[in-house]
Design a protein that fits this description.
Layout: E1 2-6, H1 35-40, E2 47-49, E3 55-60, E4 63-69, H2 75-86, E5 94-99, E6 103-106, E7 128-129, E8 136-137, E9 147-151, E10 154-159, E11 164-167, E12 186-187, E13 190-193, E14 205-208, H3 213-223, E15 246-248
Parallel strand pairs: 1-4
Antiparallel strand pairs: 2-14, 3-4, 3-13, 5-6, 5-12, 7-11, 8-9, 9-10, 10-11, 14-15
Length: 256
């Protein structure tokens, strides 16, 4: 199972990393806590459940992918993706592009499948007003934006001068990842809105809230790594290198 973040069919912004199998020992007095120690000491109130009305379950032969949508940033795109999912538009269509740490795309390349009550095209929603956003700012400078940080677990960039904000597009490396041969396509079994899946069949997850002191401590632990392998703390971190932790509802093993 993976939790991915995105605003539409072609944008997937966050992938899960390996599980932390056991709670680490308590931080010692001579050093600040590690990220794992911060998470182990977090309280239930530091976590939030996924909204099933803005969560998709993408089913593959190899398992389920959980996708959280961001209606605060792209309300029309989110509404359209939800409509397509409810209409079972994506069922049987292939994943036709995959680039590590960048994007996964699926859809009807020929553009012939009926879209039902959804729209075939939606006006671009690249930015939104900065006003009204509770942005947990990263203290470090960014190459591409005046300010970066997190809103409800999503990495966000902002320009206070223009008063605009947008979801961060974290860059990968290598080729663009388009599959050129049909045998490379990965078929989707189905895509469903979580709220429309029976409760017993849902994947109930919690995301570390990014507006809490626990997240601030986690952020600092990522800026200055104190695990045994790290000998010289960097004192800064890129917004794309702060994976927001996810865990099963009620506690359990954490993914990043």
């Amino acid at each position: 199972m993976r939790l991915l973040r995105g605003v539409g069919v072609a944008a997937v912004l966050l992938c899960a990393a390996p599980l932390l199998r056991a709670a680490p020992p308590a931080a010692t007095a001579h050093r600040p806590p590690t990220a794992a120690e911060v998470l182990a000491g977090s309280a239930a109130a530091d976590w939030r459940a996924l909204d099933p009305y803005n969560t998709l379950y993408l089913e593959l032969a190899t398992g389920r992918v959980v996708i959280e949508l961001a209606p605060e940033f792209a309300p029309n795109y989110v509404a359209n993706v939800l409509a397509l999912s409810r209409g079972k538009y994506f069922d049987g269509l292939p994943i036709e592009r995959s680039q590590d740490n960048y994007v996964v795309q699926w859809g009807d390349r020929a553009g012939k499948k009926p879209v039902g009550t959804a729209h075939r095209t939606v006006a671009a929603e690249f930015e939104r007003p900065l006003r009204g956003l509770a942005l947990t700012r990263l203290p470090d400078p960014d190459t591409y934006a005046s300010e970066v940080g997190f809103v409800d677990g999503f990495p966000v960039a902002a320009d206070p001068a223009s008063g605009r904000a947008w979801l961060v597009h974290c860059y990968g490396s290598g080729p663009l990842g388009f599959y050129e041969r049909p045998e490379q396509f990965v078929p989707l079994t189905s895509v469903r809105v979580a709220a429309e899946v029976p409760a017993a069949q849902r994947t109930n997850l919690e995301v570390l809230r990014t507006d809490t002191p626990a997240f601030q401590a986690y952020l600092e632990a990522r800026r200055n790594r104190h695990e045994e392998w790290f000998k010289v703390p960097a004192g800064r971190v890129d917004v794309c290198n702060v994976p927001v932790p996810v865990r099963p509802a009620g506690g359990g093993a954490v993914t990043k």
